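Mods, move this if it's the wrong board.
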Amino acid sequence: MAPDASNRITVYVATESPFSHRVTYALEETKITHDPVWIDLFNKPDWFRQNVHGVMKVPYLVHGGPQLHEDEEPGPGSVRIPESLIILEYLADVFPTSGLLPADPALRAKARLFIQSVETKFIPAFVGFLFMGAPVHAILGAIEALQSFLPAEGFVLGTWSIADATFAPFFLRLEALLKNGLGLYDESAGKEAHAALHSERFARIQTWITDNLARPSFKKTWDEEHYIQKYTQRLDIARKTGTFAPGLDIPANLKQK
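Not the wrong board. Structure tokens:
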């Protein structure tokens, strides 16, 4: 039976984007029928800006209407939502039995506190360390703060939720870049960060990420080799242009790292 058009989900995403990965990971967890439309971040198509999302950022979710092909405009009655965190909360609200968030208000509050820490502490440290030459202690401190939220076993709330989907795509990308020596950080700082993340200090978060990696939904949505290939391409472009992404200019002294 074909999916109900009124409930159909189309999500515009990019494979290398951790923000997109948050959404694809969550959608796979829920088993909600959805249609991904893949966007090339190096060559964003004109139809995406003209017909779908003028800002041209991913992820972007369309809920309702018929199945959409690459260059088609969403129907007038569809719900259109940008921004990964807003999309995750929307999905949790629209599909309350999907397992994205528990019904318990106290657990939902804990999820929001964890997500807030990811957004306000970890991501600035992530960007600062990888692209701006920030010291290693900032990113390790941010990860340690997130680790403190974790219970003795299981996921952020015990059972899996969007709190885990918010952080896991970023943590795996950090691990992949450190392992492959990719980034604009000092080589010694990279080695220090990698060694620290695999020390007893971060044993709990390593168990947590291993638990995420074991989930079929994560295996289906994470391809480290492809990510490294895409990141290397972007890094080469960034060194030539001085810009890694809109609003993220590389300091001149780091371009040759």
